[in-house]
Specification:
Layout: E1 2-6, H1 10-23, E2 28-32, H2 35-44, E3 49-52, E4 55-57, E5 64-66, H3 68-75, E6 86-91, H4 94-99, H5 101-106, E7 109-113, H6 120-132, E8 140-144, H7 147-155, E9 164-166, E10 169-176, E11 179-185, H8 191-205, E12 209-218, E13 228-236, E14 240-243, E15 246-249, E16 254-255, H9 258-268, H10 271-278, E17 299-306, H11 314-323, E18 329-331, H12 334-343, E19 349-358, H13 369-385
Parallel strand pairs: 1-2, 1-3, 3-6, 6-7, 8-11, 8-12, 12-19, 13-17, 17-18
Antiparallel strand pairs: 4-5, 9-10, 10-11, 12-18, 13-16, 13-19, 14-15
Helix pairs in contact: 1-6, 2-3, 7-13, 8-12, 10-13
Length: 391
């Protein structure tokens, strides 16, 4: 936010700044101690909020006087770039505010009484700051269902910001090349939560691209541990009707946009891309399957599916395999993200890239999660770095 504080009392200015910084740590705050400086800033820069004392000096070194009319004329002049900017008059002098209340009210300037001993003014200022915050937009959003999936970006060595609440979503800012984005962590796993959070993220941040990073299960014989599956088609494997015969699936595929598929397909043919993903990934002995000496990561475009529950049954994994002869992986969220993006009025591009950690059978465990989260994070990072979803 860009905020102008017009205040000649330094201690009061510090109190106002503290309240604003508590609401928006990155706020760009300009201070004017006299009206001449205030005028220069009002006519020279567009602000999101102006906080002004009504009693202040007109020039540096002069005595403080009632500047209510001067302030009104400066901020509400027809040619002022701050004509529509919210203004909060924060003054100790009730009588001056009362005398000028009608003029301030007509010009849409809120008046709040300031006192060091009373906190009501702080609540009013906080409300005003929230209402004036410009919408935050990102070039891309990465959705993760688990904290360990977010940690994959950090362990991969990427610069990730601290967790912050942005419009009710848990976000960590991350830049990839010249693109500004955020990693949004779901409050819990699953299709419903992912659908809601993805929809909110798209509507709030208006990204050009929304994608997923994380871990998944692979169909036995089609995907190995640490393979990264990018679903070019995704469906919900537990959608349909339960009858005496069991689940009678009703499959609705969501395809990734054709230009995104073409872009990913082109990137995957470049050996440098696989090296960028796999280089510097260190495996502990317990993170390497017993039947291999060193993991051989493959990154593939292939059909996958999502469901509402964790699968830890060979029988259920077989049921999922039978739904689509080319189905390669399954997990709990990608279908929801694809559908949220497809139906959104914003129409962002979308994809998911998750690394295989098991086959959904009874031997399901966590041994491969850490390394898989890193591999997945590096895949997503390097796809975005190569402009997938932006061309």
């Amino acid at each position: 936010m860009n905020i102008l504080i017009f205040e000649d009392d330094f201690e009061k200015k510090l109190l106002v700044e503290r309240v604003i910084k508590d609401m928006d740590v990155g706020a760009d705050i300009i201070h004017a101690a006299h009206f001449q400086d205030f005028m220069k800033n009002v006519y020279g820069r567009k602000f999101d909020l102006i906080v002004a004392d009504l009693i202040a000096p007109q020039f540096k070194g002069y005595e403080a006087i009632d500047l209510t009319q001067n302030i009104i004329e400066a901020v509400r002049a027809p040619d002022s770039i701050n004509l529509l900017t919210s203004v909060l008059a924060l003054t100790r002098y009730d009588d001056k505010a009362e005398a000028n209340f009608k003029g301030l009210n007509i010009k849409d300037i809120s008046v709040v009484t300031f006192s060091e001993n009373v906190d009501e003014w702080q609540d009013s200022l906080r409300s005003k700051v929230v209402s004036c915050m410009p919408p935050i937009t990102f070039d891309f959003i990465v959705v993760c269902a688990l904290a360990k999936e977010v940690d994959g970006f950090i362990e991969a060595g990427y610069e990730v910001g601290y967790a912050e609440n942005i419009s009710g979503l848990e976000c960590r800012r991350i830049n990839i090349g010249e693109k500004h984005g955020a990693i949004v962590k779901l409050p819990r796993m699953g299709l419903v939560t992912c659908s809601i959070i993805s929809t909110l993220a798209i509507e709030i941040f208006k990204p050009k691209l929304i994608c997923m990073s994380g871990i998944c299960a692979g169909i036995e014989g089609k995907a190995n541990i640490y393979d990264v599956i990018i679903p070019d088609a995704c469906h919900q494997h537990d959608n349909g009707k339960w009858s005496e015969k069991g689940l009678e699936p009703e499959v609705y595929n969501v395809l990734i946009p054709s230009d995104v598929r073409l872009s990913i397909s082109s990137v995957l043919t470049n050996p440098a891309f696989l090296s960028a993903v796999t280089d510097n990934v260190k495996f502990n002995r317990s993170e390497i399957p017993l039947d291999v000496e060193q993991p051989n990561v493959r990154i593939s475009l292939a059909p996958a599916s999502s469901g509402s529950a964790v699968i830890a049954s060979t029988e259920m994994a077989h049921v999922i395999k039978e739904q689509h002869r080319k189905n390669t992986a399954f997990e709990m969220e990608s279908y929801a993200l694809y559908e949220a993006a497809r139906l959104s009025r914003i129409q962002p591009k979308y994809f998911s890239a998750k690394a295989v950690v098991d086959d959904g059978g009874e031997t399901k465990g966590d041994n491969y999660h850490r390394a898989a989260c890193i591999i997945s994070a590096k895949t997503v990072f390097n796809l975005i770095l190569r402009n997938v979803g932006f061309s």
